[in-house]
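Question thread 4412

I'm putting together a teaching handout and wanted feedback from people who do this every day. The idea is simple: show students a protein as raw sequence, then show them the structure tokens that encode its fold, then repeat with a second protein so they can compare. Below is the first pair exactly as I plan to print it.
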Amino acid sequence: MPVHKVLVVGGGITGSVLALALAQRGADVELVEISPQWFGVGHGITLQGNALKALRSVGVLDRVLARAVPFDVLRLLRADGELITELPTPHTGGPDLPATAGALRRDLQDALCDAVYTHGVTVRLGLSVERLDQSPRHVDVAFTDGSTGRYDLVVGADGINSAMRSLIGIVEKPRPVGMSIFRVVADRPAEMDCHEVYYGGPRYKAGYSPISPGQCYAYLLDKNLDASLVGPRASLSLLRERGAGYGGTWGKIIASLTDDTAVDYRWIEAILVDGPWHRGRTLVIGDAAHACPPLIAQGAAMCMEDAVLLAELVTGEEPLEKALDHFMSRRLPRVRTVLENSLQLAEWEINPDTPGADPARIMSETLDSLTAAA
């Protein structure tokens, strides 16, 4: 096969799925993660059917679904909780998988971490890449702990603020899209059975999704507030203030939050490397190459699709250069569609009186288009 020894930089969802997929195809995989501890942190995550399909391909779907909450509809509500409409969600992973599942990010990452170790991947924590030196046949890597290594392929899966992106010579950087998001994990109200979104309130929108038998993930999309507020321990009182004006189950969730609730607040950013994501025997994938506003809930799916396809192609029969070109020809049009439509939705959220704005249509059309193979 074109590559045997592969370095994966970044141990999040993208890097974990890639390392696992490569190891299952016989590659000798080393994964480095800059954090000294390796586990899932943060809020809930929405996994569309194509994300579930990727998890099935690397053998962790059953474990994830044992804790996750599958559902097949999306409800749109007015700010007071009155139903606007209920939309069936396309089965982007095929008819034999749920259309969507809500999961706790920690549950997903724990399943991936355990599988990565089980399949013999060498995992090194608390370090990253300091320098790369390429030749036509290999890449020599110097790590931040002073060690070195030689690899057939080096993949940056280190997220939207990727250090690998600039290290391999890609100049694009993420940019704010003009909206921000508050996120919390809370107790799940008994009536919550799917993802619900509230429109017409004082902010861009509010919503929530069940993520386990007893938990839910709730969010509020707002304008960009002061950058000093950004972080994983934002003010609960600020969330309550900004989220006032939404009723129904949303109001019940916010009222139930205790003073020690972790509130994550972020400016939403986007990036698309609109050209080859590879330079010789190095490349970036996932959020390091493309990241979009979370308005279609396809971020994780696009990252996992990258990982599964890349592992398939670089362990196949094509020479590496052709395999990477083939990878780009299949991935770039698909992620561009998701990114551009997500940015259009963000624009309509920020400017809801835009003539012709139709968020439900563009969401449905995007998901319908993704039912085709990745």
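The second pair follows. I'd like the answer to focus on this one:
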Amino acid sequence: MKIEIWSDVMCPFCYIGKNNFEQALEKLPFKNEVEVEWKSFQLDPTLDPLQPQNTIEYFKEKKGLPADQTSQMIGQVAQMGKGAGIDFNFEKALIINTFSAHKLLHLAKKHGKANEMEEALFIAHFIDGKNVGDLEELISLAEKSGIDREEARQALTSDQFDNEVNQDIQDAKNNGISGVPFFILNGKYAVSGAQPIEVFADALQQTYKETVSAFKDLSKEGGAACDINGC
């Protein structure tokens, strides 16, 4: 069963959604039959890739809210994060254009390490206060995940994965996705937002029952068929 997840590195609800989704999946008997594919999405592609901004100042400017209301909003998100086992450090988090981070994600996908890289990027951004638009920071994350430094440098300083990132963004538009996180379950159902663990569990079970186990039951009948060797 395939799960496609559109996400952006600087989206706190994407990190919360990831944790809740993974906790839900871990409890299910078919967890080893689930393939997760991370998809790129940019919440603000207009951001300067060379000029990181303070989180509070960015949201004050972006939403036009006073400082105290902005702090209150961020505090509510931080509290929600604690419920998902995340200690957000918004005071250190730097807002930056995430296109390069998504290129690194696609490089990691090539090595079968996309899930690990998604987690590493979230930690770098939300916990450690790293600039996830900085070339050397991204190369360091690649190296820590077992990817060769020079391969990472080449991928990040060229257009090697630009098409993949842009295609994910276009796929989101084609699917009517305007916010993240967004989960498409085996091409049949969609779950939007950082839902509670039980919502993810119910959705996964329903999708599995309708798209996977049903086919398994039918296959037991062993009816006549044709294959490449004949009938």
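Top answer:
Good format. For the second protein you could add a caption like this: The chain is about 55% helix and 10% strand. Residues 2-219 form a domain with the Glutaredoxin fold (CATH 3.40.30.10).
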